[in-house]
Specification:
Number of strands: 10
Radius of gyration: 21 Å
Order of helices and strands: HEEEHEEEHHHHEEEEHHHHH
CATH architecture of the largest domain: Alpha-Beta Complex
Shape: globular
Strand content: 5-15%
Structural class: alpha+beta
CATH topology of the largest domain: Aminoglycoside 3'-phosphotransferase, Chain: A, domain 2
Helix content: 40-55%
Low-confidence stretches: none
Length: about 325
């Protein structure tokens, strides 16, 4: 299959392909790195519909025009953005130089926070014919309820299990359930949330969906954002949450001062009013990451000490976000 695909790419893009290597080949995606007579390219298929691929391409192009660095897409010899392979779009993206940045120094935290704020601010106003399909605001309430139900179900399913890891998780989950229920009630009662949800999606920022240092490339002073497969309209907390988790994992603890560096740099580029900040703190207090941790059974490949550190950090972060949300309410 791969040999046939390589020949198809060479023909459709007028390339001489010197070498190639499969980087990912899963039910969700195919990624192949190509060394060619015109440099490095990445052939990518998400096994997604043409509608979804078109939304991603339109979002990327909109942001490029607003000076967000995103690798360009190579057109075919017929001037098309992609070819069809196994009934799914497959495109060719230019390789760009650089290495993932390290979220360590105050400068790097501010730089990456600033980039995310600039990205969100630049994306407001993006219109797509398929926008409502990819509007995260429409599913918040269902996702909150489903996450809480899964946490409750996990506790019930592991009642009486005496393994040290399970006992540790069971000791902490009631706190996260209480916090999640509190935030869920606030969301249901929030006039601001109802107003935000009812807005046209193009007034919401585009969220990358997996914004972390592994999806950034630094070359000199430029940070390029890659892998936009999960892009959608949503609220800033969705990208900030992922980035904050990377920062906490790097620090191996919850540090409010580091969060302050991140959010202050972000807000200089994308100011948020009091009501928006309240909802941001509430969403960051909700146990999204803890739910993912138990649902995907990530604890199975972690030591007791690693689980303890993760739950302690999440608990400290959650308590802090709840206090900040309450102070602003």
């Amino acid at each position: 299959m791969n040999d046939k695909l390589i020949k198809t790419l060479a023909r459709e893009y007028n390339l001489v392909i010197h070498s190639w290597r499969v980087l990912h080949n899963t039910p969700k995606s195919l990624v192949i790195r190509l060394q060619t007579n015109r440099g490095t390219f990445f052939a990518k298929s998400l096994y997604a519909s043409e509608k979804r691929q078109q939304f991603i391409l339109e979002a990327e192009d909109f942001l490029r025009q607003r000076r967000i660095s995103i690798p360009p897409v190579e057109k075919t010899k017929e001037n098309q953005a992609y070819i069809m392979w196994n009934h799914s779009p497959l495109l060719l993206q230019h390789g760009v130089p650089g290495r993932p940045p390290v979220l360590r120094t105050p400068y790097s935290i501010r730089q990456i926070g600033s980039l995310l704020g600039r990205l969100h601010a630049a994306s407001i106003g993006f219109r797509s014919t398929s926008g409502k399909t990819y509007n995260g605001a429409l599913t918040w309430e269902q996702e909150y309820a489903a996450d809480l139900a899964r946490l409750k179900s996990w506790l019930a399913d592991h009642e009486g299990v005496n393994l040290p890891k399970i006992r540790l998780i069971r000791r902490h989950l009631p706190f996260f359930l209480r916090a999640g229920r509190q935030v869920h009630r606030c969301l249901q009662q929030s006039a601001y949330f109802r107003m935000w949800k009812a807005q046209p999606e193009y007034l919401h920022p585009l969220c990358h969906g997996d914004f972390h240092t592994g999806n950034l490339l630094r070359c000199g002073s430029t940070l390029t954002v890659i892998d936009w497969e999960d892009v959608r309209y949503d609220f800033p907390s969705k990208d900030l949450s992922r980035l904050l988790y990377v920062l906490m994992r790097r620090d191996r603890c919850w540090r409010p001062d580091r969060w302050a560096l991140l959010i202050n740099a972000y807000r200089k580029q994308h100011p948020l009013d009091k009501q928006a900040m309240t909802m941001l703190y509430q969403d960051l207090a909700f146990p999204h990451l803890v739910e993912r941790f138990v649902r995907r059974r990530l604890y199975k490949r972690m030591t007791w000490q690693q689980i303890h550190r993760f739950l302690r950090m999440e608990r400290q972060k959650t308590a802090y976000m709840l206090r900040k949300a309450k102070a602003r309410a």
